[in-house]
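Q: How would the structure tokens look for this protein?
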Amino acid sequence: MKKSTHIVLYSVLFAAMLFLVFKQFSNSNNVQPKKEKASSKANFINNNSTSRIAYVNSDTVSKYYNYAIKIQKTLSTKRTEAENQIKSKYFSYESLVKDFEKASPIMGDREKMEKAQKIRMLEQEIMQVEQQLSEKVTKEELRLTEEYILKTNEFMQEIGKEIGYDYVMSYRVGGAMLYANTNLDITPQIIELLNQRYQDLK
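A: Here is the predicted structure in token form.
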């Protein structure tokens, strides 16, 4: 589940960026871009019209975007709490098994059956608790991820209009974009603007 958190966050940012791209593309015939603030190297000629395109490194954003950091910490805390509850149950189970094995030679048949039954019941309880905690953490992860997607997309709609680009793409190693000109990288600017909006939200 720890590895999936980073994958989820990367996917979240990628989805948010893609949503911005498609939305701006659909409105590009009716909306004029605002005053340009970035280098003219970020201009892209297409069908005799000038479009402004840039990208952000989603790996870097997930590392320095305060909202993403908060979600990672929250999920890490919840996983740790769940793991500690399971460890506590397992500790009780192991102690019970050790006591049973130690005292087994001098136990009567009835007492052995009772102890063995108690151990089996504790095993079932551990499995049930583990499943419940796993489902609880998964639901919380989905809830926080959805909240993150919606709010970050809202931020990016505002930022996209503010900086005046027609397209803002998402790039990461191993992603769909195989190459990106570093002159079009506006990652630091996007991180700064995202953090400003997240700070205003708090």
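Strands lie at 43-46, 49-57, 167-171.

Helices lie at 2-27, 58-64, 66-103, 109-163, 187-201.

Upvote if useful.
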